[in-house]
Structure formats: C-alpha cells, structure tokens
Amino acid sequence: LIGSDSEDMVGVYKSINSGVNFSLMYDDPEADLFMNYLDTDVLSGQVTYNNTIAISPTNQDIVVVGGLCIWGSDDGGESWTQETSYHSESETWGAEYIHPDQHQLIYNTQGKLYVANDGGVYVSEDDGDSWDFIEHGLTSTQFYHFEVYNDEDDTWGGTQDNGILERDNSEGGFYGYYGGDGFDVMTDH
After folding, report:
1. In the chain, what is the straight-line distance between the N-terminal and C-terminal CA atoms, in Å?
2. Measured between alpha carbons, how far is 71 from 66 in angstroms, rounded to an integer?
3. How far is Cα 73 from Cα 40, in angstroms, rounded to an integer?
4. Cα separation, 86 vs 96, whole angstroms
5. Could you give the CA distance from residue 40 to residue 85 in angstroms, rounded to a whole number?
6. Of the candidates 22, 141, 167, 185, which lies 20 to 30 Å from 54 by C-alpha distance?
7. How many helices and strands in the chain, by DSSP H and E?
8. CA 72: distance to chain centroid?
9. Dihedral of the CA atoms 15, 17, 21, 22 (nearest 10)?
C-alpha cells in the first residue's frame, strides 16, 4: 500500500475475498521492509513508476514484489528477503544482481516467474531465488539523445537507465561506456 501523502510503501495487505476486505500482513516501521543493503528504501519515490507484485499460482504464501529490486516472501507477506540487488558489485552482500526498475512480474502456467525491467526480461524457475537474462532477439534500449560523429567518427547515445552507449561506426555495434541514465550526450569534436 502506498502512503496518501507520499510515494512510500507503508505496508503489505492481503485479501481473501476479492478485495472486499484486507488484512494487514506487514508494516513494521522499524524493520527492514524493502530497505536494501545501502539502508535506503528501494521503493521510495519509485512506486508510481516501477511497482509490481506476483503470487505463485501453486502456493499462495509465495509473494514476490518488485520496485528498484525484487523482494520475496514465503509466508504470505509476513517477512521478506531481498532477492536481487541494485548494483552488480553488491552481490557480495548476498543478493543476485539483475537490472533495476522492475515493471512487471508474472508467473506462467508452468510456474516460471518472469520480470520485465529497464534492462529487458529475466526468468526464474525458483520463485525469484535466481534469475536468467533472456537476451536472444530482444532489443530493449530506449535512447533519449544521440551525438553523431565525434572526432573518431563514432556515434554516442544516451539511454534510459542503460547508460551511455558508444557505437563504433566501423564495426556497427554499441558498447557500454557508462551506466545509469545517459540522457544528453556531448563529445569533443
């Protein structure tokens, strides 16, 4: 549930009668509900942009939510574990890195869990404990702006949450130059 005066997550509620009534499952303000290893709320300020939830079709106690990262519960939302991390270097803290900004979580009929985020599509066969990137045949980069033909005749592009990409015009492929939001790009001519 999102707070009325903010974009912060304030609790997890459950309904067993199609939304007529809800029961509070979790709202401990002193606990680590969706706080990441950097001690920041991974949903704060993001819940209107990337906020998704999925419940296992075979076990109603398995709940997976996504904001910047993915969190999972195996007890119906009473306790939570951070399943993915925001930065690739944070895997040393125990959470697997996948691209941030989770927009859609969905289970298929075989129980595979898919997530669509700013980096593409990932799939999990163990309710979000581990993830595989689905990259074959997908183009998921959104460019904001380009800087065409710098002093080496390369093209640079600023992307939405996929950094600055450089295209070596002699080889034709794009290569990562810098992470985050790329947006405007200017090079030295």
Report:
1. 50
2. 6
3. 19
4. 9
5. 12
6. 141
7. 0, 16
8. 13
9. -10
* φ, ψ for residue 40, nearest 5 deg: -125, 150
Q: Which parts of the chain fold into alpha helices (H)? A: none
Distance separating alpha carbons of residues 55 and 14, to the nearest angstrom? 11
Task: Read off the pTM.
Answer: 0.76
Q: Across the strands, what pairs with 156?
A: 147, 166
Tokens 């709202």: give the residue. Answer: 27
Q: What is the DSSP code string of 63-100?
A: EEEESSSEEEESSTTSS-EE-EESSGGGGGGT-EE--S
pLDDT tens for the chain, 189 residues long, are 455 555 556 678 888 899 999 998 887 655 555 555 555 555 555 656 777 899 999 999 999 988 888 889 999 988 888 888 877 665 555 678 888 888 899 999 999 999 998 888 999 999 999 999 997 777 777 788 888 766 677 888 888 777 888 887 777 778 888 777 777 887 776
